[in-house]
């Protein structure tokens, strides 16, 4: 099969979408075309650049409004948000947490920060995220429900939580997953680090988890330099999230009292200022990114052996990172595709190494990961910056 | 005694130093009079606001140059820096770490993040920091040296490390402490969060610890919004600190491989840009802060029952936060002093609640803490922003 596929077809299709003056192109670049400078200057002028300041409050409100959750707590990054979300779900040392094998390392790392063990589950090709049906069959085999929750009878450990991760912005099929969580008494945390602006059945991702998280790293749909947020519809948990991420200090004019082991995970006001300006442009970014996705669909239409990943009917995706899925028959050409596209000035990247394949997690429990392995062999992320989806003559004030 | 002290004397002395147009005054305000705006603008223009970018490298080099350490690693805050420093010193779950009871909660929290137990030690009044002589006598009583290091024979746990914290910028007496560390095979980490610009016997604080840490919170001598750094003279450990704080990712053009449980503790480039501009002004800030300290000395000269804390002959302090020490005989007036000064628009604050007095740490081992308790009853921090030490007609470009 190898000889039968011409990688230059992929390069040509990408160049059809990417304007010639835009090569070299990164996978995802931020865009600072709004009030970023104005807010930064205002923040600096106020001298409130640190942990007290109006931009943090405003940014949190903008996030809550946009995602329709009751409470958003801005933190230093998505990893910190996951750590606190797991703590607030009651994950304790020795527990297991179900995590897709196909994810960024932060999802699994955060579990270990709680002294818990990641337990890897498979993905499905139609969402690139956790496969609820397969997980249900697996739990039927290995889980025993008792008064404490679900116990993994192979390890004797409690399975306390599951973290569906909306990979590359595409929503996991949440409803069947929720049914399983109810049946097995497992808490759900949505890792929505990549899915700000993505909807499941008309509602923004992050609304189903007991807590959920966002990320605003430099490569995300909006950025605060580094940053993240904890989302929740439980106001009590939201208050606790704020408290725990602010060194668990009890408010007082001068006294320093802390009632829990807390964390210094607050987002500085200067980063939140950037975030406010970015949030104002989010609808525009999403529109451009969705347009870019449709341009890619068009450009690759009819190319045998290569499909551009597309959202499910129940999903409206932000298309954070567009992805090519190449046929199994040409999967041994993936590294050549990466090398040749990058050589042509077009940044591409494979999916993350599967978590169970990292030495640090190789002894963690895992179900059959056939689909995740196949996706991981066949997926290539392609340039997805919002600016690439800008329409000529588009009203920039839109 | 109570009736014999007039709190208005303190208010009057403070007002003698603080310009009338400066009331209300905060305890420590940042000053953005340099290249802050220029560098922020440049950073935004480059679009490199996140974890890749020239300002991080430049900021790290400026820190290393200023403190004369071999390697500085910029991180998200001082707490994160302490966590990684402890890990790299080999602190393991179940170990004990000697920590002054008189410190900010982050010092003790970071120990718990490693699964270790803070073990509280006393301070001495001449430095406000850890008392090496008293700690030596204590270790003679409780520590047994064996092949694994020093074992606390009361708890059976290994005493792996000690964290001298240079309180309010004043250097701990390091040399005798180093002797003890050698004798008992205990690693030293300097918590220099408050002592950027402070020297011990002519050398910058942070040079003696196996690793040391700095903080750049909004209330510190320089600020990056939120930020911190790990310092070390061991280049191998410096490299490991960078690796561990950057998700332990192995460098590769597109592959995602992580060889350890890592952390997302990197300082964003946008915060580092702020840091570079602040570092350029650090010598000026220190000069102003030291001038302010001498103005306070003058204003309180001869006031019975109140002394302004002054550096030891072996120390050159940044006087991060100036401190009044009131006589034991009037210590029951401390809260009145706090209330009346704050009511007069002059922010003052007591020392932190002693760590062993927080419910979260009350079961941790502790030596006799008589001096820390006395300092904690008698100390009042007074406004210490660099701008308050500005000399009329001072060359602003200095």
What's the quick description here?
The structure is a homodimer of 398-residue chains. Chain A is 35% helix and 16% strand.
Write the layout of secondary structure elements.
The structure is a homodimer of 398-residue chains.
Chain A: H1 7-17, H2 36-46, H3 54-67, E1 71-75, H4 78-88, E2 96-100, H5 105-113, E3 117-121, H6 132-142, E4 143-146, E5 149-152, E6 158-162, H7 174-184, E7 187-191, E8 199-200, E9 203-204, E10 211-215, E11 228-232, H8 235-245, H9 269-300, E12 306-308, E13 315-316, E14 322-326, H10 334-343, E15 349-350, H11 370-378, E16 379-382
Parallel strand pairs in A: 2-3, 2-6, 6-7, 7-10
Antiparallel strand pairs in A: 1-11, 4-5, 5-6, 8-9, 8-13, 10-11, 12-14, 14-16, 15-16
Helix pairs in contact in A: 1-9, 1-10, 2-9, 3-9, 4-5, 6-7
Question: What descriptors fit this protein?
Answer:
homodimer, 398 residues, alpha+beta, Aspartate Aminotransferase, domain 1, Aspartate Aminotransferase, domain 2, 2 domains, nine-stranded mixed β-sheet, four-stranded antiparallel β-sheet, 16 strands, 16% strand, globular
């Amino acid at each position: 099969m190898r000889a039968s596929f011409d990688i230059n077809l992929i390069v040509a299709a990408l160049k059809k979408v990417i304007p010639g003056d835009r090569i070299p192109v990164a996978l995802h670049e931020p865009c600072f075309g709004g009030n970023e400078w104005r807010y930064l200057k205002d923040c600096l002028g106020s001298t409130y650049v640190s942990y007290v300041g109006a931009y943090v409050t405003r940014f949190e409100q903008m996030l809550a409004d946009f995602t329709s959750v009751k409470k958003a707590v801005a933190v230093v990054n998505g990893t910190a948000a996951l750590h606190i979300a797991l703590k607030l779900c009651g994950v304790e040392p020795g527990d297991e947490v179900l995590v897709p094998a196909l994810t960024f390392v932060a999802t699994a790392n955060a579990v270990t920060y709680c002294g818990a063990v990641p337990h890897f589950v498979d993905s499905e090709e139609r969402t690139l995220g956790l496969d609820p049906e397969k997980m249900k069959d697996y739990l039927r085999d290995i889980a025993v429900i008792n008064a404490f929750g679900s116990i993994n009878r192979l390890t004797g450990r409690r399975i306390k939580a599951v973290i569906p991760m909306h990979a590359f912005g595409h929503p996991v099929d949440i409803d069947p997953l929720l049914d399983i969580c109810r049946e097995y008494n497992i808490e759900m945390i949505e890792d929505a680090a990549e899915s700000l602006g993505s909807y499941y059945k008309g509602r923004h991702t992050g609304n189903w988890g007991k807590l959920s998280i966002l990320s605003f790293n430099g490569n995300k749909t909006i950025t605060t330099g580094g940053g993240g947020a904890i989302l929740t519809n439980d106001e009590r948990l939201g208050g606790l999230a704020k408290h725990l991420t602010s060194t668990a200090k009890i408010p007082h004019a001068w006294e320093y009292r802390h009632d829990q082991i807390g964390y210094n995970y607050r987002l500085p006001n200067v980063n939140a200022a950037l975030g406010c300006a970015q949030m104002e442009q989010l609808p525009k970014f999403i529109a451009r990114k969705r347009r870019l996705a449709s341009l890619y669909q068009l450009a690759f239409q009819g190319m045998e052996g290569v499909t551009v990943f597309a959202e499910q009917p129940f999903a409206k995706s932000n298309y954070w990172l567009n992805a090519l899925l190449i046929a199994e028959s040409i999967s041994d050409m993936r590294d050549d595709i990466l090398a040749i596209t990058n050589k042509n000035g077009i940044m591409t990247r494979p999916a993350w190494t599967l978590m169970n394949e990292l030495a640090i997690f190789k002894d963690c429990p895992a179900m059959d990961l056939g689909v995740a392995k196949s996706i991981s062999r066949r997926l290539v992320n392609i340039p997805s910056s919002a600016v690439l989806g800008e329409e000529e003559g588009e009203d920039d004030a839109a």
